[in-house]
Amino acid sequence: MRIVDYIIVGQGLAGSAVAIQLLTRGKKIVVIDESENNSSSRVAAGLFNPVTGKKMVKTWMADTVFPYLHNFYTNAEKITGEKFFFPMPLYRPFVSVEEQNEWMGRSADPLFAPYIEKIFSSPAFAQVKDSFGGLLLRQCGYLNTTRYVDAVRQWILKEATLLTEPLRDEELIVKDDRVIYRDIEASKIIFCNGTRINAWFNWLPIRPLKGETILVRTAFEENIIVNRGVYIVPGLQRGEWRIGATYNFQDKAPGITPEARTELEEKLNELMNIQYQCISQEWGFRPTTPDRRPLLGSHPEHPAVIIFNGFGTKGVSLTPYFSDVLIRWMENDTPLNKLVDIERYKSVYWTSPK
Ligand SMILES: Cc1cc2nc3c(=O)[nH]c(=O)nc-3n(C[C@H](O)[C@H](O)[C@H](O)COP(=O)(O)OP(=O)(O)OC[C@H]3O[C@@H](n4cnc5c(N)ncnc54)[C@H](O)[C@@H]3O)c2cc1C
């Protein structure tokens, strides 16, 4: 029997962050991941942005999670020897003089000041439709998620064990203080399985939210992300930009759709003055929750079975900080924030099979 500290199931953004936290603390781990081309983490544009939404409010816990993610991904680049983290300003054009004035006022507000790079009251970028100027935000950027997940995968292969196959639920033996999977014994198993159903946590409300993006080739050369209605984020190759994303709870079918492409192109044409050629389209399902907060905690009857999931539309910014929260809770008994603890759903959704 091989004895390790943890088994991690799933190596998307969630499982990768947990693996980094555990390996850098010297823990022994086995990761089991059946990689999928359309997993949320592989199709994400990787954007992180602390001021979002139609009303442009500071995102939940921005003052904590944004400084944390910066150190986390910079360190992940050091340990893996790969480049995937690209801090970059984000530009949001104004649509009216009122909006321009509102942001001029907000720029002195200590809540927003750390995130504002500059406010433009007249057009600033020739290829952006910004006749009223716009807001340039800092502490934004993008993570090349495919490169990140692949780099962490290579690092796990060197430092630990990776099984590139599905975990078979029926082969997992769960005891009070440990789990056994084939010839591996671990003190805990952590499910980071995104939207895929698993036997222990299928009672939790993880709602798949379909998203599609398009990749375009265009001569846009600025070193910024532009975001209003859609975002335009650098792709893997120079001259390629990812445009996203759609949000569709109704469409449960795998695959790309012409409707999504039309929606994205219409919004891109409203935002930008560019000629472009669409070269590909991608789709995936985000693991969302009704209250838009992640899911952390142990199974109601099996303390050795843990979940780390529900990162919805914000896996890039939330998984670094909350993987640290998870590990401090498992290793040092640091209480979980009630907003992320799965206890909040237990009384609503959990019924014991006994
Ligand atoms: C179109 C689109 C655009 C997005 N853009 C952004 C963005 O710009 N910024 C941002 O922050 N977020 C974005 N997201 C959301 C982000 O992708 C998710 O928050 C994040 O990827 C969730 O990661 P995860 O690891 O929980 O899940 P997943 O990425 O789904 O990873 C789960 C992994 O577990 C594996 N797995 C599951 N069950 C098993 C099993 N039984 N055995 C073995 N392996 C298993 C799967 O194969 C997969 O590899 C976007 C999502 C989509 C779909």
Helical proportion, percent range: 25-40%
The percent range for strand residues is 25-35%
What structural class is derived from the secondary structure elements? alpha+beta
What is the H/E order?
A: EHEHEEEHEEHEEEHEEEEEEEEHEEEHH
Taking Cα atoms only, what radius of gyration do you get, to the nearest Å? 21 Å
Q: Can you tell me the CATH topology of the largest domain?
A: FAD/NAD(P)-binding domain
Ligands, ions, cofactors: flavin-adenine dinucleotide
Supply the number of helical segments.
8
Overall 3D shape:
globular
Weakly predicted, low-confidence segments: none
Mean pLDDT: 95
Task: Give the class-level CATH name of the largest domain.
Answer: Alpha Beta
How many individual β-strands? 21
Task: State the end-to-end distance.
Answer: 31 Å
The second-level CATH architecture of the largest domain is 3-Layer(bba) Sandwich
Q: How many structural domains can be distinguished in the coordinates?
A: 3
EC number: 1.-.-.-
Enzyme class: oxidoreductase
Domain FAD dependent oxidoreductase: 5-326
Keywords: Cytoplasm, FAD, Flavoprotein, Methyltransferase, Multifunctional enzyme, Oxidoreductase, S-adenosyl-L-methionine, Transferase, tRNA processing
